[in-house]
């Protein structure tokens, strides 16, 4: 038996080592840092000595008739395995900077085997005598090699030169015991651990970007394979769930194997227990060392089972965290690429749910997924062992436990409902939880009592009343106790797996949503070589917000549509376009205004240029980098500075220039933390005008070639409007050399435009400069006149209101602006001023005292560090650990 086990272990080791050598050579690059000589040579030496010793033993065994020849062959294979380990060790030192886990595990297995054989060899009455000397040399050589290998390599030159983090450098023992994390814990003894302390120390597989790249590549490949496959229909899609599993297979295989090992180690315990009880009953026939070895074996088996269990859970969590991060990145990137139609179907709340709830399932439930290896294996082993012990009588116990399963399921459901009740009333939750916990105890005890009763009645083989020996009672009780684990986990594993499956399917459906068609717009990142060539050129193009494939007509004719597609024709274009017959050219440095009444398609024209709309026909060409400032300013939850830099490198000169051009300097001076003040959802709300200027500053700092500005001056008051025009957007502003397209409702800057486009009913009705358009006396002329009249009425009302309040202030204000009643633009400027946008007022013109109070409050909320619990681990925690151990 022992010889067969030795042969199969050695054969498995040889196969494993060869696979590892192949992996190292073909999948990794040499680290090029040299070899850690004082670890390399001693370990190589120990392994060679061990192989020689075991071969010597094989030689001696071949010449004795006492021991079966198969044992000698086991030794030959063991020697061969250690020579393969020598070759592997050589490659490990070239490609890896940490000790090989494979060799490490083989060390442990071989040492334990050698100790077991030594124990038998040392026992005078145990039968055949083994050659002791080579066996001792074998065990000593391996122990020496193991000690050198287990020694942390942290101080070696190779590890110090390497940029890999503490996890990457840790050997298997260190990872199993989390020893590698000790430096961080000791930092925690002296001060608070910060994110910087663990930066770069954790496994690379946890980095969100690399995880995202791997998973999105795997998903795209799966989609491609599915599309190419002749059997797949258009309605089906590959499974994201299996794609995630396939993508993590390199990490999953060792983790799942470790689950198998945990089950095997756990079930060694009852076997050893039975042996020990047998030995205690008939201890005269065997030496004391046998009993000690059995007890030591039980200790080692539980030790390995719990070490592997921790390792398994940790690795599963790593897989869960990496998958969750990759999924969140994929959802985020997808959200940026959704077509107009898909955006209408997916609200931002729904997308946020995919990120926070659905993706989170991977982190919550991943541990349970590995249970699907453990549960069937554990059930099979325990039932087999119980059968050996009790015969078919074991069914009585097993069925009794299984009959408690629905009760457990009910218990789990009750627990779940109590959990959700927590959100409604904390007191109610406390009361119910206590009730359920106490009833859970009763049910468990009740389960044990029933099982005991069943043994007593049908304890003998095959349901006959029998004698209960200590071996039968203790061993079968241990086995039944072990059986309860997998049975109890069954409902958790099922619920969690279903939860992950449902959540992943929801994410999958989102990821399969239609995206903007990149081919709609011909883009080039660089500007045209000839400055006279346009940067934007739109030729006879029509655009729609609705997908041409989703129009009712096209849905009705879906069969025809498929036939047409297969015949290589375009689908019939039945969607009414939002924009039609668009003809436009814009050159570098051009300042173009887009004007028109509300809802005529001004913003849509900009959306069409950035590819947000479906292009129905025509040609769109765009050169250079494009910056788009939407009507609704978008601010993210970060500091004002980060909102402007937005990932770009900080350049003091450029940053200051942009702040000045956008008129943000006075605002920053007022903010409690200057430009480091946190703004966005959690921060103070900036006024609409301030947000719009931060948005403009972000675009300006990005230094793009084409600026698409959707009415950015609508929320600012007159003097800020003038400042932005003079210093940023206008002919002498910071962006003067860039192509700018400005959608505007104001009329006061139109005289300075190179080109004005009048949009009406989704098409460009008129184009030209201000005087040309006024001379046409068409839509533009009417628009300006109407606007002027409207503004004059508004202006009169406001002036009257102001005069009654503060005559002097109003006089000063209008005198300064120099209103010319014949000039609509100048009048507008004045009106915009007295409008004194409510938004801006919020940010800048409140009474000073009131602002001070608000700022103080904001300062406390925004700049305060996140609340964190500090202190040592209490005695109760230590006690809890001790009890669990
Ligand atoms: N995201 C969208 N999805 C679907 N339809 C849209 C979308 N945005 C605009 N539309 C539609 O396109 C048409 C033109 O709207 P658009 O916003 O371009 O007009 P506008 O001239 O910019 O108006 P305003 O001056 O009020 O901003 C309208 O019928 C509007 O309902």
Structure, described:
With 885 residues, the protein is of the alpha/beta class. The protein contains 36 helices and 12 strands. A hairpin with a 2-residue loop joins strand 11 and strand 12 (763-768). The model is unreliable at 422-431, 440-461, 551-572, 806-851 and 860-864 (pLDDT under 50). Bound molecules: adenosine-5'-triphosphate. Residues 340, 545, 578, 596, 598-604 line the site of adenosine-5'-triphosphate. Adenosine-5'-triphosphate (ATP) is lined by residues 340, 545, 578, 596, 598-604.
Can you give keywords for this protein?
binds adenosine-5'-triphosphate, four-stranded mixed beta sheet, elongated, ABC-type transporter activity, about 5% strand, about 900 residues, ABC_transporter-like_CS, 12 strands, transport, 36 helices, alpha/beta, single chain, six-stranded mixed beta sheet
